[in-house]
Design goal:
Aminopeptidase, 457 residues, homodimer, globular, Alpha-Beta Plaits, 2 domains, alpha+beta
């Protein structure tokens, strides 16, 4: 497909950029209209690429895009999953360019060309590779599988509407494998295939002290400060060994065998480079586990946001009424998100001192999952990537979450295969998200080759 | 002066409201022009009230207003101090009315009329009482003292420019007593006169973890979260007894004698009412001290603001790069603000774990002070308020800080006298600041009577 890419490059950029320009931020109500606009754009691109049909279908939330090409009713069907919604771009002041004005720019570290913009990688850039690999296979008469596309608009907020919609559309979604590019590989020198992802529980907490903001001079020292109290409560959520101190949190965690841990340890990892990339002097995490294990096979708890009191310019002497935080827990098999969310909410309310009131709101959740590595699909992906990268990809465990894929396994009985071409340097979810052109093109090639090696019957 | 108030009420409101409408927020650079506008307005009001002269004078920061009326070079001179700058109004969504569109509204609790708006009390409303008491005394031929007015525009940010300016203008500021209305009394049933105020050290801290915001799935559990770290550091700033855990913090604190504590305990205080007013189940503070002592004679540490990570709508799964907090310490005699600020900064950097970087920025500071209660001025104020309120005011210790008054004692050798007419219910520094009309008028009367009982020679 190399020649095809070379011949159509500029058109690919034009098409992808037209999708990236739409600020399809699922977390923000104000962007509602952008969601449908983005879905419609993708449906058009699918039809232009050669799909028999492509439609924007309503769900209880943002619409999904569904498209299909039936080559042979007896052939195997590949379901391509992706999401067209993106993370909020904030903090805006840290972006080098407008997040929704995509450009081709040099990678700050290496000078290699990359696509810059929110969604360049996660997941508009990655799902776009599938449309173009499909277009190439069809145009060159090489497509032997049936292909279905499912692009949703709520992945970044935990796919609240998709499970119900999948249940109502089981027949339409029937397929043999679900191909997903929404993850990273270890590095562009060390390709990897994800064989599992973590689940997620995301909550927002609110701690209220006095019923109004107070003058910190008149009341300071005599009335509990809700910020200090929230800080104390957050501090108590980890023990001295870096373990999450929510009772019952580890009860169902699957402990890996020595053999499995040894296999994961084969993935190359350079702690010095890792620390340099992040500019930190030391890593920190659960005692007794390596950095890769801490993100791959162990659950964790993070504060994703905190706010309270005066946060503007200068000095305002206030003892505030409320303080808030957003808490995310990454889960591993067999922790159930719904159960962990309940455990956390119960614990957080229990540890609240008498001088404050605590509210806990569930935001998002999803279970983790594992992927069998001996399958036809895994082997086809491995062979495809070996040819493109010249090295056999290693199996790896992703630390992130795609909540809906566990649901898909349960509802549709389809295993996902995670061929992700993102890199750590892409800073997805952060300012200056980008996607290396070399990965963008290697991804398309790998996907096209996957179809070549994945049995069509 | 009662009749004079009755006859001129509407004009008083019009004049005061024209001052309240100017958003003279000293903490915000954007309001720079408003500062001078407000100062000029006040100079005009001073001249209209009968001052010989009133000028807007430049300092290194916001201008001061200086006005004077020399009745008799041999008579005693009263220096009236006030400030025309106000606290930022945020959070705006909690205001019932526009903070800079003053109105007369009913007090939510009692229905009694009050002036609503930022600065209604602190300190535009209170300094305005002095202008009107002066106008009345002059108009009725009763003024026997020389009067000087000094209104500054940086009190809410710690008066950074005034000390230097006072040093350069000692002669012009010469006076026998400095009269200040910028504090509260215990209640309108229990008038009080402040005989001391706390000092202040205000700092901003910044904790940096990784050099960019990270995907909380890819890094969560392996990289220290700066919010969690900041929370842990903040938690460690108090010990189990509610004492500030900064080494050396209490070294110079003056411990009060049993007799002095017993005198302060005479101030009426109802813990049940206090808790109901704030809607809290329990108070919290340093072990071994009462609530009034905790705010009056003991130092404390508060977090006035905290922010970091994603604080918008919905769920963003980010492991943020930085977290910030604003920390205020209220100080008592003989704690020196400059020294405590240094101790805090040193300690906070020392307790920073290796996996984060910590920056500490000084924002504001000032020493506390005590006022002799046997003086002519104290007695005159006490007699004046006894007549107006029908009860002898009790001496009280204010928990707040007016940093510059300690400087004034040192530079000009003038003792302040704090006749404050604010009430707790006024929620100064908070949304819905207001000032009860009954206090506004009782304040004017008390001030006019002060001149009557304070010896003029």
């Amino acid at each position: 497909m190399k020649e095809y890419i070379e011949a159509n490059k500029q058109r690919f950029f034009d098409e992808l950029f037209s999708v990236l320009r739409i600020p399809s931020i699922s977390a923000k109500a104000a962007n509602k209209a952008d969601m449908r606009r983005c879905a419609e754009k993708l449906a058009v691109l699918l039809v232009e690429a050669g799909a028999d049909e492509a439609q924007v279908l309503s769900t209880d939330g943002n619409p999904v895009v569904f498209g299909s090409k039936i080559i042979d009713p007896k052939a195997r069907t590949v379901l391509v999953y992706g999401h067209y919604d993106v993370q909020p771009p904030e903090p805006l002041e840290l972006w080098r360019t407008n997040p929704f004005e995509p450009v081709l720019g040099p990678d700050p570290a290496t000078g290699a060309k990359a696509i810059w913009g929110r969604g360049a990688n996660d997941d508009k850039g990655q799902l776009f590779m599938h449309i173009k690999a499909f277009e190439y296979l069809l145009a060159s008469g090489k497509l032997k599988h049936n292909v279905k596309f499912l692009f949703e608009g709520e992945e970044e907020i935990g796919s609240p509407s998709l499970p119900k919609w999948m249940k109502e559309n089981k027949k339409m979604l029937k397929a043999d494998i679900c191909l997903v590019s929404d993850t990273t590989m270890i590095s562009d020198k060390v390709p990897s295939i994800n064989c599992g992802m973590r689940g997620l529980s995301y909550l927002e907490v609110k701690v209220t002290g006095p019923n109004k903001d107070l003058h910190s001079g008149h009341y300071g020292g005599a009335v509990a400060n809700p910020i200090t109290t929230l800080c104390e409560m957050i501090s108590s959520l980890h023990d001295a060994d870096g373990r999450v101190a929510v009772p019952g949190f580890y009860d169902k965690v699957v402990e890996l065998s020595k053999k499995d841990r040894a296999m994961l340890a084969r993935a190359p990892f350079d702690l010095k480079e890792y620390k340099e990339f992040l500019d930190i002097e030391e890593v920190k995490g659960e005692k007794g586990y390596t950095t890769l294990e801490r993100t791959g096979i162990r659950p964790c708890l993070d504060v994703c946001g905190i706010w309270g009191g005066y946060t503007g310019e200068g000095a305002k002497t206030v003892l505030p009424s409320v303080a808030h935080a957003k808490i995310s827990m990454r889960l591993v098999p067999n922790q159930r998100s719904a159960e962990i969310t309940k455990l956390f909410a119960k614990h957080f309310k229990k540890i609240a001192p008498k001088y404050v009131k605590v509210e806990v709101k569930e935001c998002e959740g999803g279970d983790g999952f594992l992927i069998p590595i001996g399958s036809d699909a895994y082997k086809a992906a491995s062979r495809a990537m070996t040819e493109v990268y010249g090295i056999e990809p290693v199996p790896a465990r992703g630390g992130g979450s795609i909540a809906v894929l566990a649901e898909m396994q349960k509802i549709l009985g389809i295993d996902p295969l995670l061929m992700g071409f993102g890199l750590e340097r892409d800073t997805i979810h952060s300012p200056n998200e980008s996607y290396l052109l070399s990965q963008f093109f290697a991804g398309m090639e790998s996907i096209a080759k996957f179809y070549q090696y994945y049995p069509s019957k």
